[in-house]
Amino acid sequence: GGEDQGTKMARGSPWFALWVCLVLVVDFGEGQEEKPFGEKCLEDFTAGMPDLVLDIDASVQNGATFLSSPMVHRSRDCMRACCKDPTCNLALVEQVPGTEEDHIQGCFLLNCLYDQAFVCRFARKFGFLNFLRKDVYDSYVAMQDHRSSDDHPPIARTGMDMRVQPGEPVMLRGTESTDDRGIVSYEWKQILGDPSVEMKKHEEDQVEISNLQAGTYVFQLTVTDTAQQQDFTNITIVVLNSEQTEEHCLTPKKVGWCRGSFPRWFYNPSLQQCEEFIFGGCKANKNNYLREEECQLACKNVRVCNGNCQSPLFRCKDGCCIDAYLECDETLDCADGSDEMYCEQYAREFNRLQKINVTHKQGHCVDLPDTGQCTESIPRWYYNPFSEKCDPFTYGGCGGNNNNFEEEEECMKSCSGITKADAIGRRWESFESQSAILSAFEVVIAALLGICIMVVLAIIGYFFLKNRKKKNSRRRQPTTATNSTLSTTEDTEHLFYSSTTKPV
Fold first, then answer.
1. In terms of residue numbers, what domain contains 384?
2. Residue 145 has pLDDT above 90, yes or no
């Protein structure tokens, strides 16, 4: 926030109190011929008592960041390297054993502030020396003087700075503020950012901030105690835009090259939740949170914004996907507001469609025949726009549609002139193909039935003729001697006389 960084830092750690009690202010620039940058840089640092080393595990565990280890050989060069990094506030050097000159064998640069609180921890260790930026040191000394009065002034505290998504409401609290005799009032005011935000007071120390859009906001809390002594502090709220959201929420987790073991949190956009992972200790990306609450606040409901939005999702202009029903709900759900951008045009074009003069008199004539939900068998007629005539169908007795007539004449009178050009879509094509299949099937069945009948008739005729021939053979008389003689005589006569010699 906008509060002096050292003020918040100084409240955070008994280790820091021990460290400051041992510091000696050393002016390294006096008498040296340095460039203006070097002189100014060296004046910005204090030197700590020798033999205090940074407890790196405890410091990183609490949020400190290891920045780099430049290859330099003097303490002043290590401080100059720290000056070149705006996030650096501690230069730790490892001295060369057995020498009192400004020769070092290691330089380590760190950022000891996390959410404006000093989080570095120190331990006794021979051969090390710490250099801290004066603004942090001076703020701590001022805080010690501030606490030395009989009636201590109040101390305003707002909690950590925040990163949030656009449109997400935020609750600011001042309950962490303290005073030895009690706080009588809490006053919140906005000192930076879009003035269109809304502030609504809840409890005595709480205020809800809403209508936040992408940008940076600073709010100030002023507390007053029973003696009318006051203190104030600031809290910064960064409302992430699409590019910042990409860095803070959509970047894959990064363990880093270092081999430490520090529990951290990252946002998993696929599952839309924050998950714990083990951070190596250096070169973190921005999707790296010390506490789960920070992660959830910064990345609430953030989706992957690759533009690949499948139905039923709505694609925002920035490529993010939201549920389609959130479009035109009078709430900005896309970070860029594109879900509410075309709502007026949408309604205007719909109204334009409603004003088109459309006749509904024959609209039912292109509906498919519908038997309804009931199971009766009532003969009815429907109009077929493909054949341009009315065909019979069986109606169930309830439901259905208006392409349903009791008489063929009534059907033709209602739908005459309607053709297949008036039937839109493939429903009728499917219905016609089904009807054609049924008709072909009926023809085949009829043909097969005819063939079967002919075969049956042929079989019956065959047996009838066979039985009749048997009956005829049974009626023939048996052969006698007279008949046999006569027959023989006649045969002899026939053979003896030819047609030309037989007497008349």
1. 363-422
2. no
